[in-house]
Design a protein that fits this description.
about 525 residues; alpha+beta; D-Maltodextrin-Binding Protein, domain 2; Dipeptide-binding Protein, domain 1; Dipeptide-binding Protein, domain 3; 3 domains; 7-stranded mixed beta sheet; 4-stranded mixed beta sheet; 16 helices; globular
Amino acid sequence: MLAKKNRYWGQIAILGILICQTGCAGTHLRFEPDTLRINIAAEPPSLDSVITTDSTSFDVISNLMVGLTEYTQELKCAPACADKWEITNGGKTYRFHIRPNLTWSDGKPLTAYDFEYAWKRLLDPKSGSQYAYLLYAIKNAEAFNSGAITDSTKLGISCPDAQTFVVELSQPAQYFIYLTAFCPTVPQRKDVIEKWGNHWTDPEHFVCNGPFQLKKWVHEYKIELVANPRYYEGKQHLQAIKMFMIPEQSTAFALYENDQLDFVDNRSFSTSDVQRFRHSPQYQNLPLLRGNYVGFNVQKEPFKNVLVRRAFSEALDRNVFPLILRRGERPQYTWIPPGILGYSASSGAKYDPAHAAVLLAQAGYPQGKGFPKVELLYPNREDAKLVVESIQDQLKRNLKVNIVLVNQEWRVYLETLHRDPPGIFRGSWGADYPDPETFMNLFTTTNGNNYDRFSDRQYDQLIEKARCEQNVELRGKLYQEADAYLCRVQAPIAATFLATQNVMVKPWVRGIKLNALDLQFFKNVTVGD
């Protein structure tokens, strides 16, 4: 109860500060010239690109750091720190040429060795990175990350000189180039991290190579970025970005309506507000490659039993979720979304409450009798609450099962999933790159984000085979087979719906671009009349 009160008064304080900033002096300014004000809703768990896994942290890091490549608006990889590269040896060798005269924000030259350090740190088991699996296509990467080998020089990562970064894969991987535009593979500074340890991400120590640099981090309140004068593309239009941490959607949207935020997305935009402003010229909607699901920890009762998992999945009518959220979401029964290689509607689970009840009875719980108390964990967001309340209601009506809903603040929720996932939880996964591997790899045995603790040899073999397959048609069929096995046979998850991004942008803001990966880059944004 105390924590809840503190959060409430904290948000009142934020609201008061922002209102006073624009109103107490007697003159109400619609905007701050060359400053973008947004809400990221929660405290980023970390700004260490090797450690973090969540979209909130990535939204900050993506504006501070740049990798070997960067995404275009069409989600293709364009030159960034590497101005060119060659792919040889049948797709197994990548040679990146680092752009000359790159510098860090403190003026020190940026070299290929900064990428070598960062990538080896990502794979180092001492780092505990949940995203280490991203680089498992690299020669000896999985063995190094698991501790089977300890010599990092045996990794397929090397620098012949300060301007050349070479990566050797154990097998070709069609998706690999996408990883070079993703946050966990940006460069890092060895001297800074070794000197400051866990405090290297504090504003006074943080060094970056992106369009902005970290000026201020007031925990649980605000992060401020300022333009990086040493960014290789030159001066930015924006001089500052203020990122507030307001978890309550209604509070954040009230600030937008009062001209104290310039841009809001789903984190600040409740279902009711979307309905009110759907026809506003400031409103935009875009489908996302972000799947939502109910996750089952297969190592905990009663979800060790596949019949229980399948019963829960078949008891959920996915058509309900778009109706209650009303933001253009799409019901999802498969894990691979439409438009991605390997998608097939036939791969998905089916809504069949009568059969679901039979499955639950076969598991030993006829009409829900004797079913143990279980708690469904979800993050403290209004839209997430609507979804889990619907899940709770459907399970009660269709299976006669009562589940308890438990919510946690974003950082605590992530820590719980990583440390000790409950038997059932609300999960979501946004594509890290536009390829089926980003979805299907999530539930392999060695994936650090596999909160279902699902470990299945047949599934792992299917994903490994699909990862290495060079024939596009055959690769798609392998992913399709894996999707059916995941959603219909073993059911460690019940896919629920595909998200959309809903935003409001003030008329004095220009250059906000949306994309299906929901990556937010602000380097081309301007604020002013």
